């Protein structure tokens, strides 16, 4: 493109490079910056490899055409085409970008259909859990038993069912066992022990996507029988009611009711699915310690996480930001930046900028240990307030 600019004697004001996908409108910072600078008449033309590099969604395409209608953007030049404020050329631009959107949408449908077909054939499209090994056969990724690890997995279920072991008992039992390790060759953490005991994949069924309620019969060999799995689930529920198995609520002491000022408290509810299985959901509600008649509604934990991530994104770039990034948090962010860079480098995607606190916060809330989650939340100015599932920095009224 630089050679093209030199050949046609185009005056290049600035070169911008961005790796964000053009699929969703309003999500590319540099593209939004370009629109703003065109509005400010810093430049009035764009040189790009092809139209689909500029937009593969209706929103961004509309912004470009609107700028051309207002004579702010007079020329879009690609390697093989040129678009100006001409009805036919603008129409062609819209067709090419819409075609790119159609291809993108169809590709997504093809991927979803392929995943659904694979599930219906009995193969879960995810990395195999502990005790299994992924392998490829005739173009399909399948799952086989890990003959060294599978007996240990079955033993965990049997110890819970027949010897009343708790998750912590199992962790102690496995402490000195060098054969059972996670993918990073570390000892199995308590959270992984519980997730293993609750995973129906081990008796031959799986849900995909998780939380969708769509269940499939797997073709992989089972490690435990269905009756043994059911016994373990009943034991775990009993264990959970004891003090030793008390529930960790990620937003404990984080929120107050914006309506009456009382603390928001967490609780879990169990729901029976049509398949006969049971699922536990986490909610937060006003404790009503100040106003027994407070009408503030319940908030699902997943909704609350989404709202909090949006709130962090809004305040991060403010001059009077409420964030308190101590040295420990900054150190964790640097480690996450290196981890992210190494993962992206393995996919031949290179990003040199450090991650923002919002990116780090989102990663930790969804994937971090309980201690890391608490540390990330404590960087905010607490308490925050909730009203109608929305986060506020102060009470209402």
From TrEMBL:
A Pfam family: Zn_ribbon_recom
Stretches assigned to the Recombinase domain: 129-242
InterPro entries (alphabetical): DNA_bind_recomb_sf, DNA_bind_recombinase_dom, Resolv_N, Resolvase-like_N_sf, SSR_resolvase, Zn_ribbon_recom_dom
Top-level taxon: Bacteria
GO molecular function: DNA binding; DNA strand exchange activity
Residue ranges of every copy of the Resolvase/invertase-type recombinase catalytic domain listed in the record: 1-122
Official protein name in the record: Site-specific recombinase
Source species of the chain: candidate division WWE3 bacterium GW2011_GWF1_42_14
Taxonomic lineage of the native organism: Bacteria, Katanobacteria
């Amino acid at each position: 493109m630089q050679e093209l600019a030199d050949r046609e004697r185009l005056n290049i004001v600035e070169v911008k490079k961005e790796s964000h996908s053009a699929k969703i409108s309003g999500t590319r910072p540099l593209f939004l910056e370009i629109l703003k600078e065109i509005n400010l008449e810093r430049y009035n033309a764009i040189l790009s490899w092809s139209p689909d590099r500029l937009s593969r969604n209706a929103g961004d395409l509309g912004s470009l055409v609107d700028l051309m209608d207002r004579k702010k953007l007079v020329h879009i030049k690609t390697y093989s085409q040129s678009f100006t404020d001409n009805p036919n050329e603008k129409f062609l631009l819209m067709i090419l970008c819409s075609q790119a959107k159609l291809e993108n949408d169809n590709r997504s449908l093809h991927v979803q259909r392929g995943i659904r077909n694979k599930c219906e054939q009995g193969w879960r499209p995810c990395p195999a859990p502990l005790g299994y090994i992924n392998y490829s056969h005739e173009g399909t990724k399948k799952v086989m038993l890990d003959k060294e690890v599978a007996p240990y997995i079955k033993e965990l279920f049997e110890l819970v069912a027949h010897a009343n072991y708790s998750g912590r008992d199992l962790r102690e039992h496995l402490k000195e066992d060098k054969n059972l390790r996670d993918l990073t060759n570390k000892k199995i953490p308590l959270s992984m022990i519980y997730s293993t005991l609750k995973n129906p994949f081990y008796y031959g069924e799986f849900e995909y996507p998780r939380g969708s309620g769509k269940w499939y019969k797997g073709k992989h060999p089972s490690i435990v029988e269905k009756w043994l799995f059911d016994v373990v689930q009943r034991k775990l529920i009993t264990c959970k009611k004891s003090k030793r198995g008390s529930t960790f609520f990620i937003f404990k002491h984080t929120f107050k009711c914006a309506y009456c000022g009382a603390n928001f408290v967490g609780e879990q509810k169990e729901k029976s699915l049509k398949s006969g299985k049971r699922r536990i959901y986490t909610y937060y509600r006003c404790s009503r310690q100040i106003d027994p008649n407070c009408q503030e509604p319940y908030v699902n934990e997943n909704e609350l996480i989404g709202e909090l991530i949006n709130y962090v994104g809004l305040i991060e770039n403010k001059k009077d930001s409420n964030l308190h990034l101590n040295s420990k948090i900054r150190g964790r962010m640097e480690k996450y930046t290196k981890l992210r860079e190494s993962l992206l480098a393995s996919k031949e995607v290179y990003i040199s900028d450090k991650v923002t606190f919002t990116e780090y916060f989102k990663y930790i809330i969804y994937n971090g240990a309980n201690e890391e989650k608490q540390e990330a939340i404590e960087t905010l100015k607490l308490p925050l307030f909730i009203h109608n599932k929305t986060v506020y920095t102060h009470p209402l009224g």
